[in-house]
Amino acid sequence: MSPVVIRPADPVVDYPAVATLLSAVSPSPVTADQIRAWDDRDADSRDADGVIRRRAVADLDGQVVAYSLVYREPFDPPGSFYLWVTVADGRRGQGVGGFVYEEALAFARSHGATALRSEVQEAAPDALAWATRRGFTIERHTYESTLDLASFDETPFAGLLDRVAGAGIRLFSLAEGGNTPELRRQLYEANYRGVLDDPGYTGRAWLSYAQFSHFFTERWFQPEGQFLAADGDAVIGLSAITCNAETGEATQMITAVDAPYRGQGIAQALKLRAVLYARSRGARLIRTNNDSTNAPMLAINRKLGFRPEPGLYRLIRALPEAGED
Predict the structure, then answer these.
(1) pTM recorded for the entire structure
(2) 145-311 topology per CATH
(3) Which of 33, 90, 192, 280 has its CA 20 to 30 A from that of 74?
(4) Average pLDDT in the chain
């Protein structure tokens, strides 16, 4: 058998195989085109200070048997890197994963890494044990929830949107609001407040507006799926969703309402708008993730009919000084 060769992933030659590896460990399918779209998104910020991204594959006898991803965003703390590895089913337990991990670790270290972040699916205890043996510990636990749109019944929520409107709160999409620069800025600020107020927030720096504005040109970004709640001209809440026509699934992202406006049904109404939008786009399923400590949002999801699924462990590892591993 030839030795395993690690090399940068080729978007044309390797991404179909990489997509197969990712789909095997992901709750929803991943396609080669999606990975290329991620690359397109990344290209906008690749020249920014401190941005590092590398996709690599392990080649054995002409077949891709493993994949690693290493990246650092400009808003990450100094020395903090994301590192993730997966191995084809038939090649696990043969040392391939450890070999690929050590090479990825060396790459991160060569760029100044002093701490690592990663993640494993809750439904993959072997992967968690593998990461634990390499010094990772659990930082956060997020829950995944899914909503079957074919069986979703909005009848129990009849009148919810009218009640919120009657209280003086206007609900509308970014597209309905004209997708103006001013409204985009308010969307960013509502996102920013929501991130900092999330129970799962770890104190990590977040995107600047210049970094956030790259989202507006990405393929996943749908102004029709960015729902805002406003009191007068002030945006006080949002719920974001995107639909993937390839997979027939929608991803529910952040939902947040400013503290003075909570307890009035606004978050539930925003999520209802998002659900109805996804169904109108032909999605069959919505996926969302929430931190395990975010009890209010988990309760809203249950009211809407979201079903709990195995979640995700977010992992961290502080790196010892070189030579102390």
Answers:
(1) 0.79
(2) Aminopeptidase (3.40.630)
(3) 33
(4) 91
